[in-house]
TrEMBL record:
<comment type="similarity">
    <text>Belongs to the bacterial solute-binding protein 7 family.</text>
</comment>
<dbReference type="Pfam" id="PF03480">
    <property type="entry name" value="DctP"/>
</dbReference>
<dbReference type="GO" id="GO:0055085">
    <property type="term" value="P:transmembrane transport"/>
</dbReference>
<keyword id="KW-0732">Signal</keyword>
<dbReference type="InterPro" id="IPR018389">
    <property type="entry name" value="DctP_fam"/>
</dbReference>
<protein>
    <submittedName>
        <fullName>Tripartite ATP-independent periplasmic transporter solute receptor, DctP family</fullName>
    </submittedName>
</protein>
<dbReference type="GO" id="GO:0030288">
    <property type="term" value="C:outer membrane-bounded periplasmic space"/>
</dbReference>
<keyword id="KW-0813">Transport</keyword>
<dbReference type="InterPro" id="IPR038404">
    <property type="entry name" value="TRAP_DctP_sf"/>
</dbReference>
<keyword id="KW-0675">Receptor</keyword>
<dbReference type="InterPro" id="IPR004682">
    <property type="entry name" value="TRAP_DctP"/>
</dbReference>
């Protein structure tokens, strides 16, 4: 007992004023699929740094970007097995488990970031996050990637009818697939880290994504046309394994929770800044021809896409949809 006390004495650290033994070091493996130079990539690193500093090294968040550990479709199982403790998938990737999350994918549903954040941070966002509990997951926050745009290799897309006959990679079946099918395009469901190859080898004609993903994955290098359409939103749910979370010492949990709130604010600002900066970089590289939809064109697209909604009113629930609309 004396030896144990002695050991813990010299190896103890302080988390937010509380003594913690070194042998009780908490390791959180955080796996994600995007590049480090993206809003999610940078926020994961910032979170890890802040936690390391603030816990005096007693909590270590190890970040694994670029599908290094697990790809889309593998992350949920890895979290549930305890191979990783934290993930931040696109909300679209939760829709197969939780269909109501499709509300975040509805084309032209959110006019601006403010409405997105109001939804994410309000009672509806909380209701969506609480659904994750059914699968032993705890939702800690919602992060941004930003509004999605379209790239393809066949012809400029200016009107929805330009989709006809093309094929696009989508993140998940459901609404994302329906939005392309509606205008005669095929939607191909592929994991993120297979997209570059699929585009460069012509397995699909195009894809939809945010500027930071287009730039960091170099989709602009293998695609000919970019339409700045802002037709849908790409956000993330930051999720931990609930069982792991619940057995953490309360001081550690409080520190993690406090820090995630702060990092969420930083992440959203970073997403906005990066999407602007990286669009400028894409323009400078001059590999892809860019067309920005006018507000008039966006209104026409919005009206044309709205029939996709009715198809999903049943799955999402009309009442829920109307709540979010409000
Ligand atoms: C995609 O699969 O296109 C995105 O969800 C990747 C990401 O996590 O931003």
């Amino acid at each position: 007992i004396i030896l144990a006390l002695g050991l813990s004495g010299c190896h103890s650290r302080v988390i937010d004023g509380q003594q913690v033994n070194k042998e009780d070091k908490i390791i959180i493996k955080f796996s994600h699929v995007v590049d480090e130079n993206t809003p999610k990539g940078l926020a994961a690193i910032r979170f890890a740094q802040l936690i390391s500093e603030r816990s005096g090294g007693s909590i270590e968040v190890q970040v694994f970007p670029n599908s290094q550990l697990f790809k889309d479709g593998e992350e949920f199982e890895a979290l549930s097995r305890g191979d990783v403790q934290m993930i931040a998938p696109a909300t679209s990737k939760l829709t197969q488990l939780f269909p109501q999350w499709q509300v975040m994918d509805l084309p032209y549903f959110f006019d601006d970031l403010e409405s997105v954040h109001q939804t994410m941070d309000g009672p509806l966002g909380k209701a969506l996050l609480s659904q994750l509990e059914e699968k032993n997951m705890r939702g800690l926050a919602m992060w941004d990637s930003g509004f999605k745009h379209l790239t393809n290799n066949v012809h400029p897309i200016i009107k929805p009818s330009d989709f006809d006959g093309l094929s696009f990679r989508v993140m998940s079946p459901g609404i994302l697939q329906a939005q392309f099918n509606k205008f005669g395009a095929e939607a191909v469901f592929l994991p993120f880290n297979d997209v570059y190859e699929a585009l460069s080898k012509g397995k699909v004609d195009g894809q939809e994504n945010t500027i930071s993903n287009i730039y960091t994955q170099q989709f602009d290098q293998v695609q000919t046309y970019l339409t700045l359409s802002q037709h849908g939103f790409l956000g993330y749910a930051v999720i931990v394994n609930a069982e792991f979370w619940d057995q953490l010492p309360s001081q550690a949990r409080e520190l993690l929770e406090k820090t995630i709130v702060e990092v969420t604010e930083w992440e959203r600002e970073t997403a906005e800044r990066l999407n602007e900066e990286q669009l400028e970089k894409i323009k400078k590289l001059n590999k892809i021809s860019i067309y920005a939809l006018t507000s008039q064109e966006k209104s026409t697209w919005k009206a044309d896409f709205s029939s996709v909604y009715s198809k999903f009113e049943k799955e999402i629930g009309l009442e829920f949809l109307n709540e979010v609309r409000k």
